[in-house]
Amino acid sequence: MDETVAEFIKRTILKIPMTEMMTILKAWDFLPENQLQTVNFRQRKESLVQDLVLLCENKRASLRDAALLDIIYTQFHQHQKVWDVFQMSKEPGEDVDLFDMEQFKSSFEKILRRALKNVTVSFRDAEENAVWIRIAWGTQYRKPNQYKPVFVVYYSQTPYVFTSFCHLKSNTPLLSQALTVASNHHKIVKMDLRSRYLDSLKAIVFKQYNQKFETHNSTMPLQENLELDMHMDSRIIHENRIEKERVQRVTQETFGDYPQPRLEFAQYKLETKFKSDFHGGILAERKEPLRCLIKFSSPHLLEALKSLAPAGIADAPLSPLLTCIPNKGMNYFKIRDK
């Protein structure tokens, strides 16, 4: 086994938490289970990694095997990446072709290799007719950098592609070309939608809101305790109860009963010309529009927005600019004068 492959496997295994080690190695399916049973998984991690790398060396692991292990690790830790969404389209009136996944993979890899000699492309099929693609970019004179790959997730027969951050921006047009040609589409555009949570992005673009999403923090339930101090004036109790019921009804109509897709932020760029009834002044003579950037951030932004009105922090209903995020499939907005 090549030294660079051994080092690549070693670094990947070192990233795997001990609690997930056996699960990921079994999913990799490179080392036989009877060999894994001979390994002491209770020893220090550095010693464990040495034993596992030695087993890989004895089995002559290839770069493709090592790349597959990296894909599996990333699938388990999707939220460590920032994912962008791209939408592809066909020509008007163009027929929908029968999709062949193997043909897609072959065409995709050929397009990249035809344009760039030093590139490593690896695939792993996933659930829901999806394929995970790992691309390690090189240059005409340098070998691919295996430690800064870009990951692509494509759901067959859909126009949507999810990609992790690409360190070499100059290769983005080539990646876009390979995706559109291999999937028999004509055009690809980047959507104004980004998150660390791939399942939530998928739910937004596929309109699958009524499902459970990965969350690491508990969120405030929408249902509030309506019991009030019995010593209060009954008219106040009645008015307060009616208002809380209205807020809850409006919030439910806006966000639904289901958990919200997980996004960490929403960004709004405002561009507007200065308007005044008074003539003259520095701003009145300004030709460039006034620009303002507002960013809302939270570990779980949509659930946080959903809880604002019931908590009494904001009036119900909230602004459509805040509540339209899932329906529009955007968390980057540009607001300009009409």
TrEMBL record:
Listed GO biological process terms: CENP-A containing chromatin assembly; chromosome segregation
GO cellular component: inner kinetochore; nucleoplasm
Location within or outside the cell: Chromosome, Centromere; Nucleus
Assigned keywords, A-Z: Centromere, Chromosome, Nucleus
InterPro entries with a match to the protein in the record: CENP-NAC/CAD_complex, Chl4/mis15/CENP-N
Main subcellular location of this protein, as a coarse class: nucleus
Similarity comment: Belongs to the CENP-N/CHL4 family.
UniProt name for this protein: Centromere protein N
Gene designation: CENPN
